[in-house]
Design goal:
binds pyridoxal-5'-phosphate, Aspartate Aminotransferase, domain 2, seven-stranded mixed sheet, Aspartate Aminotransferase, domain 1
């Protein structure tokens, strides 16, 4: 603490003042960040158990502090190597991440600028830039110009926020007609829809009806129509998936939209992973009908090359969302009583990082053509991998890929064989491919979003399936 003169308490300003120490801390962290962001050979790394980490990394929180140098060394030498690099070209499980260099770097600017992204009053320029991205996406997908939305933390919060808005709209419509709520509200979706939809239903205490898709893996209008007939006006929303996480399958959006429009039911499209594919002109027909969505999501941290974590949530009519989500409190009066549309009013959140800005900066830097090309590459690579799988006698495709997910089996292998192979692949630092399952059968699933992932890398992975 520095001694103070005059009135007022002594200021403990060591952490905040611009000083030699502050400069050294900032330089140290930025140097590390620069090296990590520009790695030529990204280490895949391996996880560690809580016990292992407790042995080597405990005791970092002390009354006097370790100092930045030691704390950063602990992170760089001990902690970071136990975190898988999801941007490694061989990270092929779940949905990988592949932030562009511009997006990664700009994430630091968002932090350093201390922008409050919840309100227009506080973050006008940042919100404007985020809205530019949302308007571009809305235009690409054929939503009306009045569409608008907000970047939230991830697809789970995006789906929940959209469904809360949908139920609020349904409830208001019933009240206007003098009708009470149904005994149980119902959300209808495909059995292949993401787990976050069932989770949203549980949070909202509504019933979740998962319909088996047709043999082509897609949810179609006729199945939705049957569900609407069975559950009547208790249904407040239908969720279609634009790119299932398991297989990358896009539901029959046009067929479903025809049914929801006729019934006056809200259509939400979950495109957290796969809606990025609609930016590729040749893929656009697969998404026909998306223009009728009442709400939709797409995660920039999945296939739009932004760092964790961000979900673009769009509404056909943002005013409906505003009615459902605006928080009222005396200390917020200056915000809620203004005519501005505040990002916080459109989802379940108040304080908000301007998490759409890294995507904005990256799009503004490279332009949309580069994005279309990078997404298209993943789709083409997945097709080539599927051809390669089909050509190998010991492998068989479970389904031809529509987007960039390839699911296949190694004939004759048990779940234990897959586990052992996967562990070896990671131990050798070649790739991260965890076994998955389909209808109870163990399978392998490869998801490609990273433009640095090559056919040769995946061919080596397939080669390693040859032997035990
Ligand atoms: C990943 C995913 C989600 C969940 O998104 P998070 O950002 O992980 O919360 C929802 N729906 C689909 C289709 C997904 O692929």
């Amino acid at each position: 603490m520095s001694p103070q003169t005059g009135v007022g308490p002594a200021r403990p300003d060591r952490m905040h003042a611009v000083s030699d120490e502050s400069r050294a801390v900032v330089d140290l962290v930025l140097d590390y960040t620069r090296r990590r962001a520009l790695y030529e050979d990204i280490p895949l790394d391996v996880p560690a158990s809580p016990e292992e980490l407790a042995q080597v990394a405990s005791g970092s929180i002390t009354p006097g502090g370790l100092g930045a140098e030691r704390a950063l060394a602990l992170f760089g030498d001990v902690l970071a190597p136990t975190c898988l690099s999801t941007d490694h070209p061989g990270y092929l499980s779940f949905i990988p991440s592949a932030p562009s260099k511009a997006a990664t770097a700009f994430d630091l600017v968002v932090s350093a600028s201390s922008i409050y992204g919840g309100s227009w009053l506080e973050g006008a320029g940042a919100v404007f830039a985020e809205n530019e991205v949302l308007a571009w996406l809305a235009g690409e997908l054929g939503l009306p110009e009045t569409a608008g939305g907000v970047f939230v933390q991830g697809g789970t919060i995006g789906n929940l926020s959209a469904l809360v808005a949908a139920r609020d709209a349904a409830r208001r419509a019933r009240r206007e007609r003098g009708l009470p709520d149904p005994a149980r509200w119902v959300v209808v979706c495909s059995a292949e829809s993401h787990s976050s939809v069932a989770s949203a239903a549980a949070v909202m205490d509504v019933d979740w009806v998962g319909i088996e898709p047709d043999d082509d893996g897609r949810l179609h209008g006729h199945a939705v129509e049957d569900a609407l007939t069975a559950h009547g006006d208790a249904v407040f929303a239908v969720v279609a998936t634009a790119g299932t996480t398991n297989f990358g399958i896009v539901d029959d959006l046009a067929g479903i939209a025809a049914v929801t429009r006729a019934a006056g039911v809200w259509l939400h499209v979950d495109g957290a992973y796969g809606l990025a594919g609609a930016l590729v002109p040749a893929m656009r027909p697969a998404y026909a009908g998306i223009e009728h969505a009442d709400s939709l999501i797409v995660d920039p941290h999945k296939w739009l090359f932004a760092p964790f974590d961000a979900c673009a949530l769009l509404y056909r009519d943002p005013q409906v969302a505003r009615r459902a989500h605006t928080q009222h409190a005396e200390y917020l009066d200056a915000l809620t009583e203004s005519p501005d549309t505040n990002p916080s009013d459109l989802a379940i959140q108040l304080t908000r990082r301007a998490r759409g800005l890294p995507l904005w900066f990256s799009l503004a830097t490279y332009g949309t053509n580069e994005y279309r090309a990078a997404i298209s590459y993943g789709i083409e690579l997945a097709r080539r991998v599927a051809d390669e799988v089909a050509a190998r006698p010991e492998l068989s495709l479970v389904r031809r890929p529509q987007l960039s997910v390839v699911v296949f089996r190694r004939d004759g292998w048990s779940a234990a064989d897959y586990e052992a192979w996967s562990a070896r692949l990671l131990a050798d630092q070649k790739a991260f491919v965890v076994p998955s399952s389909h209808r109870g059968e163990p399978v392998l699933r490869i998801a490609i979003v990273n433009p640095l992932t090559t056919f040769e890398l995946i061919r080596d992975v397939l080669d390693s399936l040859d032997s035990q």
